[in-house]
Every structure is written in structure tokens, then in C-alpha cells.
Write a structure and sequence with these properties.
Elements (H helix, E strand, L loop, with lengths): L11 E4 L4 E4 L7 H30 L11 H49 L7 H29 L6 H8 L7 H14 L1 H34 L1 H46 L6 H4 L1 H37 L6 H7 L7 E4 L2 E4 L3 H19 L1
Antiparallel strand pairs: 1-2, 3-4
Helix pairs in contact: 1-2, 1-5, 2-6, 2-7, 3-5, 3-6, 6-7, 6-9, 7-9, 7-11
Keywords: Membrane, Transmembrane, Transmembrane helix
Protein name: Gustatory receptor
Organism: Folsomia candida (Springtail)
Amino acid sequence: MEKSTLFGKFPLHWDSAKYRLVLDFKFSRDYKVLIRISILLMVSFFPGITILLRYFSNKLQLFGHFEDHVPHDVICAYVIAFVAFVILFFIFLIVILSWNKYTSAEMERSFIVFQRLSKVCPRQENGAHITIRLIKVAKFVIQFDFKFSLIFASVCIPFNLDPMYYVLLEMKLTPNNMTNLVFRTVLFALSWTEVCRLIAIPICLVLWTINVARREMFMWGNMARRSNLGGHFYYRQIAILYTLRRRPTTFVLSFIVITGFIYEVLLNYATIVMFGVFPISVYWTLPYIAIVVRIIVTQVVDIAAQTYEDFDATLKFMRRKCFGKKSYMFRKLRGSQNLGLCIYLGTSPYLIKNSLKIDYRTSVLYYTVSLLTH
């Protein structure tokens, strides 16, 4: 991604000497990022916020009435874009704040255990096919991000969804003549390239997390099937990793599931209640966003639940291989806990099992109906 001139290298960038993703706040290393972020703020963010503030000021009659020539569906699109932008900003902020304290150290610990497991697993048993599939997904995401700003501009500019269109109208200029059209397209596409990068980096980090979790379980499971002694030895090493991972992972998973649950219930409610209220050009986004939220949350829960199932199945298999229930290895395996991932439901953490997916869907349906009936 960094080989492209479209994308910057601030604050996260790939260090070719260390072969690591590094957090670095040196502006001099890549000043082009600051230029593109400045263009984003001047071309899209501040004009869009001004349009929204003026619209809500007129609606609530807070100040004198401003001239309002922005269509209602454009206002709705700006509200949705603003909410999405705020969520993206906080996700990236969490990544940055936790990088030096937790994320980079976790990467190093995982890499060490991964190397140890790889040394004793044959190539056909080390889960390389899992990484190959995820690399294909990551390449698709990055290749799509290269083109996304241009695709986004080609959709927004013809329908006058960019804030610069209304800025030019305020300046008594013709926004749709050839010069201003090219000007709007170039600035809009250029300003959104860094937003595409902010989307790509968290997605790639999520894919890395999936890769680590799935391959650790795959290699450990194959090793445990060959030898209880080797399986228990590496279980203890993985247990150290999961003990360190448990607290931050529990908070992250709880935040994702709770936030996704609230958004899905509200979007389902809005899909039913707002039919005929919003213009169809905006209304159709509500069910699609609800579907995307559901897919994301259910996939996160599914991966976490699969981790629990893998631990449970492997520990049960190792116990069955023991010669007797009074043997030393059986007693050690019986005392080995399932290291599955947890989620806060109330004040106590609970292991994420497959049943949570059913409970989640049932709760979404129940609270959506409750909102409608009240």
C-alpha cells in the first residue's frame, strides 16, 4: 500500500529494515499526508459540518434563518457520513493509543510462539492455507482502496453530494462548468485517499488477528493429536498469551457487540418507522447498513466462538487419549481450563460460545419489537 503515491506513511508505516509495522509521529518523514488531511478538512469536513449546523439551526430556530438550498436527502447523507466518520476516527484513535502499550508487544509475543509451533509442525500441518486465504482478502481490500476514492468521487460528484458544490453556490459560481467540475472531482478524490487508508489499516489488523488465532489453534490441535506431552507443553505457552490477551480482548469484543447491537436495533427500528419519511435515495441505505452491522458482529462472535470450540475439542481429545483417569497427564489435562475469549454481559465476563449468536439475534429481534410496540 505504501508503494502507491496515493497513500501516506503517517503515523503507522512499514519499516523495511525491521520488517515491522511502526508507530512514528515524525511529520518530516511524510508531509504529503498532512497536505491531504488538510484538503479533507477544508474540502469536505468543515463545509459539511457548516451545512449541517446551518440546517439544524433553521430547524430548531436557534439563530436567524439562513438561506437553505441543500436538499433533504443530501442532509441525511451528510448525517450518516458524519456518524461513520466519527466511528472510524475513534477506532483509529484506539489503535494508536494502544499501539505502544499493548498491540506491538502482543505482535512480538505471538510471533515468538508462532515460530516455536512452526518448527515442530510439518508444512502441511502448519495452517499455511489459512494465511494464504487471508492474504488474498487483504490484497483485495487494499486494491479496492486504491480505487475507492475515485469510485466514491464518480458517485458523489454527478449527484452533487460533495460539500464543495454548495460552497461554490454560496460564492455565486457555477459548480457544474467544466473547470469547476474537474476542480471538485480532483479535490474530492484526493481528500478521501487518507480516509481509505484509515479504513484499510484496521481491516488488515483484524485479518492479522484472525490469522494468529486460527493458525495457533490449527497447529496446536495437530500437535495435540500426535502427542499429549507436546500438546500440553504448547498449551501452557498459549495459555500465557491468552492470559495477557484476555483483559483487552474482552473489552474490545464487548464494545463491538454492544455497539453493534445498539446500532442494529436502531437501524431496524428506523427502517420500519421511516418508510415514506425519507427520500428513497436515502432510505435504502438504512436496511443495507443494518445488514452490514449484523454481518460484522456475527462474524466477530463466530470467530470468538470457534476459538472456544477449538480449545474444548482439543482438550477433550487429549483427555480421551490418556491411558487411565488416574494418570498424571489426565489429571493435568482435567485441570486445564478452556482459554476461549470472553465478553462482558452485565458486570461479569462470560465465555463466548456458539449459543451467543442465537442469543444475540433473539435479543435484537426482541428489542426491535419492543421499540415498535412502545
